[in-house]
Specification:
It is a single chain. This protein is of the alpha+beta class and 90 residues long. It has a single domain (3-83), classed as 2-Layer Sandwich (Alpha-Beta Plaits). Helix content is 38%, strand content 33%. A four-stranded antiparallel β-sheet has the order 2-3-1-4, with helices on one face. It is globular and about 40 Å long.
Length: 90
């Protein structure tokens, strides 16, 4: 199944921090479903890197659209790229 890397840049930090527990619950549910590979914020909290596993880019965009961060307009910029793993061998 293809993997996709999302690089997020944050905005609306007060709203984002208020909803962060729900965002993390959402990510935990994706992990249980096998849709989340890894995630975490950058050290300066300006954004995050999230890796998804999904059938298509459209599916990933739907997953991101349902994220609580999207509902409070916490994402200023989203870069989404399909990623090809080389090491360790998949």
């Amino acid at each position: 199944m293809p993997k996709y890397v999302a690089i997020l840049t944050f905005q609306n930090n007060d709203e984002r921090l208020a909803i962060r527990p729900k965002h993390r619950e959402y990510l935990a549910s994706l992990l249980e479903q096998g849709k989340l590979v890894l995630s975490g914020p950058f050290a300066d909290e300006s954004g995050a890197l999230i890796m998804y596993q999904a059938d298509s880019e459209e599916e990933v965009r739907s997953i991101i659209a349902a994220d609580p961060y999207t509902t409070v307009n916490a994402i200023a910029d989203l870069q989404l790229r399909e990623w090809k793993q080389v090491f360790p061998a998949d």
